[in-house]
Amino acid sequence: MRFDDDANLDTSEVQDVRGSRIPGGRKTVGGGLAGLIALLLALFFGVGPDQLGLSSGDSSPAPASSPAQVQQSCRTGRDANSKEDCRIVAVVNSVQDYWTQEFRRRHGTYTAAPTVFFSGRVGTACGTATSAVGPFYCPGDRKVYLDLGFFDELRSKFGASGGPFAQAYVVAHEYGHHVQDLMGTLRRAQSNLTGVNSNSVRLELQADCYAGVWAHHATTTKDESTGRPLITSLTTADIRDGLDAAAAVGDDRIQERFQGRVTPETWTHGSAEQRQQ
Fold first, then answer.
1. Cα(first)–Cα(last) distance of the chain, in Å?
2. How many Å is the Cα radius of gyration of the chain?
């Protein structure tokens, strides 16, 4: 995946709070598969982690330091081609450019959502979350939250091959949830929380589909400031990496890997095959 070297990046679409102090004494969502399920229920269906018995109790505040500043280091597509955090900025720009234009084409209005870079844990309108839950979208404040360390875990913990487009797929999937929020899909899917045919699985697969729709248009959607696409090329290998990442976070793969058996009645995201499709 390559970006136009001369394109300007819009860093206003990313809030970088890595290294910021988060007030201590608040309860955080538990990690692992249980944490992923708890956060999904909390974010989409109003079920708090306390109700599920999955809160980890009080935790110590993150060390205080100056937040990293993507605004200073991520200025052009050339930066996106050489730095991971700048690459995510560029992907956010591209995804939101696409949805802005697609909503307009359909006589609607797309409301931009910032991505928040954090480390360790973060406070959101949906509660305090740790990095253990992975990337997520909070409809309460309409923001995407991402600890960049997740991409290392995607390879080491979940067995994905990785690569820049695997990262892009993850980001585009979370913006798929934002599109669902804007279209009212999240509000309409507040029952039938787990299982192969549950609304949870349907939401996740639709977000995967929206990520694929963006990918299909990524090299043709024009940046409105330059009149040129921000992403200049996607290769077959890029798409393969994205599909591999989708499969790696399928419910069956995760359950097999971490609990040694597959229990479809507890699925919340869909199988590896479904997510790839």
1. 21
2. 18
Distance CA 70, CA 14 (A): 8
In angstroms, the CA 264 to CA 87 distance is 35
Q: Please state, in angstroms and rounded to a whole number, the distance separating the CA atoms of residues 121 and 141.
A: 16
Reading the block at residue 21, the tokens are 């102090």
pTM: predicted TM-score of the whole model, two decimal places: 0.82
Q: Which residues lie across from 231 on neighbouring strands?
A: 3
Tens digits of per-residue pLDDT, 93-138? 999 999 999 999 999 999 999 999 999 889 999 988 888 888 999 9
Contact 86, 168 (CB under 8 A): no
Q: What percent of the chain has pLDDT over 70?
A: 83
Distances (CA, A) of 207 to 68, 69, 118, 145, 196: 29, 29, 22, 16, 16
Q: Count CA atoms within 13 Å of residue 246 on its CB side.
A: 28
Kindly compute the dihedral angle of the four CA atoms of residues 23, 26, 32, 33, in this order, to the nearest 10 degrees. Answer: -130
Of all helices (H) and strands (E), which one includes residue 275?
helix 272-276
205: tokens are 């697969």
Q: How far apart are CA 203 and CA 239, in angstroms?
A: 22
Tokens of 275: 């997510």
CA atoms of 120 and 103, how far apart (whole Å): 34
> How many whole angstroms separate alpha carbon 66 and alpha carbon 57?
26
Residue 146: what are its φ and ψ, rounded to 5°? -150, 120
Higher pLDDT, 48 or 135: 135
